[in-house]
Amino acid sequence: MDEVREKKQEIRSEISSFFKSLDSDVLAANTHIIENRLFEFANFLESKIVMLYVNAENEVATDNIIKRAYEYSKIVVLPAFDAAKATMKLMKVDNPDKDLIAGSRGFLEPNPAKCKPVPVDCIDIAIVPGVAMDEKGGRVGSGDGYYDRIIPDLPMTTRKVGLVFEGQLIPQVPMESHDKHVDIIITEKRVIYKI
């Protein structure tokens, strides 16, 4: 078990170096390509209630994806994290400029005073962050396990989609029993279907 965790830390470190090596113009261009692929993706276009994420370091940026989702008449759901309980609550965000506050992890998240909770079984498509992924849908996250806990609660019909750059794809993610896969991965070069 410790060996797997050590390997994941190595992967996080390698991906951090990959991000630092990227030219900001290349990063922006590739982010835009991934964003456009998502907005051409049939499962995304057909969905009404979309779970997105506010990106952390070493994850595909989502600020523009969140803004564009409103243009496509999506109901945007973002996670609010409870670090003490190691849980996340899904909340409907009507206006990201007014409804987000700095959360316990240091990133923007829904303000519970302004946003309503959304039951997990209402989510049509879940866009899931990852520091690294493999072509089988294995993912390395931040290490807190928030998404590993919520993915099993999503309906079977809810597509779980990971957004990563090609440089974040690794041959094989070391998986532990609690680790959960995504169904589909979108990169700047392709869409990978695990299902």
TrEMBL record:
<dbReference type="GO" id="GO:0030272">
    <property type="term" value="F:5-formyltetrahydrofolate cyclo-ligase activity"/>
</dbReference>
<keyword id="KW-0479">Metal-binding</keyword>
<dbReference type="InterPro" id="IPR024185">
    <property type="entry name" value="FTHF_cligase-like_sf"/>
</dbReference>
<dbReference type="GO" id="GO:0046872">
    <property type="term" value="F:metal ion binding"/>
</dbReference>
<keyword id="KW-0436">Ligase</keyword>
<comment type="similarity">
    <text>Belongs to the 5-formyltetrahydrofolate cyclo-ligase family.</text>
</comment>
<dbReference type="Pfam" id="PF01812">
    <property type="entry name" value="5-FTHF_cyc-lig"/>
</dbReference>
<keyword id="KW-0460">Magnesium</keyword>
<feature type="binding site">
    <location>
        <position position="59"/>
    </location>
    <ligand>
        <name>substrate</name>
    </ligand>
</feature>
<dbReference type="GO" id="GO:0005524">
    <property type="term" value="F:ATP binding"/>
</dbReference>
<dbReference type="InterPro" id="IPR002698">
    <property type="entry name" value="FTHF_cligase"/>
</dbReference>
<dbReference type="GO" id="GO:0009396">
    <property type="term" value="P:folic acid-containing compound biosynthetic process"/>
</dbReference>
<protein>
    <recommendedName>
        <fullName>5-formyltetrahydrofolate cyclo-ligase</fullName>
        <ecNumber>6.3.3.2</ecNumber>
    </recommendedName>
</protein>
<feature type="binding site">
    <location>
        <begin position="139"/>
        <end position="147"/>
    </location>
    <ligand>
        <name>ATP</name>
    </ligand>
</feature>
<dbReference type="GO" id="GO:0035999">
    <property type="term" value="P:tetrahydrofolate interconversion"/>
</dbReference>
<keyword id="KW-0067">ATP-binding</keyword>
<dbReference type="InterPro" id="IPR037171">
    <property type="entry name" value="NagB/RpiA_transferase-like"/>
</dbReference>
<feature type="binding site">
    <location>
        <position position="54"/>
    </location>
    <ligand>
        <name>substrate</name>
    </ligand>
</feature>
<feature type="binding site">
    <location>
        <begin position="8"/>
        <end position="12"/>
    </location>
    <ligand>
        <name>ATP</name>
    </ligand>
</feature>
<keyword id="KW-0547">Nucleotide-binding</keyword>
